[in-house]
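Hi R.,

As promised on Friday, here is the backbone we talked about, encoded as structure tokens. Could you run it through your design pipeline when you get a chance and send me back a sequence?
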């Protein structure tokens, strides 16, 4: 059994067969720390490799590192949650899975937007799910294979209808719904998915989905070991600061024997238009342009590092 890297490392290498994806949503009452404790208690595992903690913009996360014991901890600020009193959601990669050698399927964030602000996003969610299903079908999978579905919504006004639709469409999946900052003059929905693979494959752009030069629609990972990076944030908001962010990620991956060129999924977290534009400008100085990773890029409210305007984390195979 491969040992995990030290506490709060720059990344962690995990045996694929033992990975388990978990999601913890606390009861929407009490303080942030009370909800964090409750969410942590709902993660069933002796060893937690990675936490992705979503919190509100004003959350004081100073004590998180003392309580969220894991190899990698990423903290991302979102605009809100399904319940106005919810303060945190935890996605976790833990020990305890029993996976086949075929590995996992990563579906890029499937986005639908409108050039107007709309409070009800259910029709957009329906269209997004149709795209997720097209991606799954194109790789030989279906909604019942989805393990984790994460949806980013510009409005929570009809969240109960959205949740009802998601539970009917993906009954076996853990389903996380997060509110993102409203893009100026627009409404936006984007959903990413992780599914259990039925057969090994690499990178696919299925028929029915736009083929983009900037990301692959579906990526498979079937290596015996998988690398999950920590979150790397920019130093300020300049081209050099974003370039240093990617360089820091690249350096950390090399130390663990992984390669940014092999990244299968890329989580990109811009918190401003400048952050978005700089991320798009710089990323292919590091990513494989000929085989870009599956990816999600939507606006966020920030990170643990308050002066950053962009952040990134990736998933990659170990050779």
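Update: got your reply. Pasting your designed sequence below so it's all in one thread:
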């Amino acid at each position: 059994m491969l040992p995990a890297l030290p506490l709060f490392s720059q990344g962690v290498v995990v045996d694929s067969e033992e990975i388990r994806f978990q999601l913890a949503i606390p009861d929407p009452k009490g303080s942030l720390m009370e909800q964090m404790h409750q969410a942590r208690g709902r993660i069933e595992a002796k060893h937690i490799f990675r936490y992705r903690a979503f919190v509100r913009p004003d959350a004081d996360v100073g004590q998180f590192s003392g309580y969220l014991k894991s190899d990698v901890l990423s903290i991302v600020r979102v605009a809100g949650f399904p319940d106005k009193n919810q303060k945190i959601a935890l996605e976790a990669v833990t020990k305890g899975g029993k996976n086949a050698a075929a590995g996992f399927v990563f579906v890029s964030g499937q986005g639908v937007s409108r050039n107007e602000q709309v409070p009800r996003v259910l029709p957009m969610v329906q269209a997004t799910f149709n795209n997720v299903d097209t991606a799954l079908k194109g790789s030989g999978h279906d909604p019942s294979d989805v393990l984790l579905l994460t949806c980013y919504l510009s409005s929570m006004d009809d969240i109960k209808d959205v949740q009802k639709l998601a539970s009917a469409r993906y009954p076996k999946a853990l389903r996380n719904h997060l509110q993102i900052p409203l893009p100026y003059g627009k409404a936006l929905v984007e959903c990413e998915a992780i599914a259990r693979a039925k057969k090994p494959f690499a990178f696919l752009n299925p028929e029915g989905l736009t083929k983009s030069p900037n990301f692959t629609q579906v990526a498979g990972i079937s290596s015996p070991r998988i690398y999950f990076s920590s979150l790397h944030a920019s130093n300020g908001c300049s081209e050099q600061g974003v370039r240093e962010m990617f360089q820091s990620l690249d350096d950390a991956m090399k130390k663990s024997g992984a390669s940014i060129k092999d990244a299968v999924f890329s989580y990109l977290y811009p918190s401003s238009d400048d952050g978005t534009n700089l991320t798009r400008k710089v990323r292919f100085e590091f990513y494989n342009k000929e085989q870009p990773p599956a990816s999600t890029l939507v606006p966020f409210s920030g990170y643990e590092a308050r002066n950053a305007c962009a952040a990134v984390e990736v998933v990659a195979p170990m050779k």
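One thing I noticed while checking it: The chain has six helices and 17 strands.

Thanks again,
M.
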